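// run 5 | inverse folding | seed 20
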């Protein structure tokens, strides 16, 4: 038996009752919220201007991209593997950012004061990279197998 499908104006087909598991939707939501926290972290912690702008831009991008994936899953579309792969790459950049801007911290005298922001980036980046990587991997595996991720 085939699952009932509907088509939207963009031509993308939605499959009812055969989507990814509910956990992927919530994991996308969690990644989106962590991205928002990264975006507002310069307002919480003292930081160099370059690091602050980086966090605002990258955090906002992660928030919007993971939120888009959450929206897709909520409305019956499949996970966008490309979007979640990009989120995973941005999360890896979030981990590397404190080390890339390390010289800027020293010039601004923020070595000790910026430790909260550094750990916020590293821990948030690790969580986002793992979750986004898992979501992208599970969606890719489901497409290869011809079934939705988490179903048999």
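// decoded
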């Amino acid at each position: 038996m085939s699952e009932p499908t509907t088509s939207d104006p963009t031509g993308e087909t939605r499959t009812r009752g055969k989507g990814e598991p509910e956990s992927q939707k919530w994991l996308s939501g969690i990644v989106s919220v962590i991205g928002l926290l990264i975006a507002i972290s310069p307002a919480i912690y003292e930081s160099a201007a370059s690091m602050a702008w980086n966090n605002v831009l990258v955090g906002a991008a992660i928030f919007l991209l993971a939120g888009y994936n959450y929206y897709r899953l909520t409305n019956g579309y499949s996970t966008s593997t490309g979007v979640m792969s990009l989120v995973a790459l941005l999360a890896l950049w979030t981990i590397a950012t404190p080390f890339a801007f390390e010289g800027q911290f020293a010039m601004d005298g923020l070595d000790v004061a910026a430790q909260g922001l550094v750990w916020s980036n590293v821990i948030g980046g690790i969580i986002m990279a793992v979750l986004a990587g898992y979501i992208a991997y599970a969606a890719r595996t489901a497409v290869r197998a011809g079934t939705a991720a988490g179903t048999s």
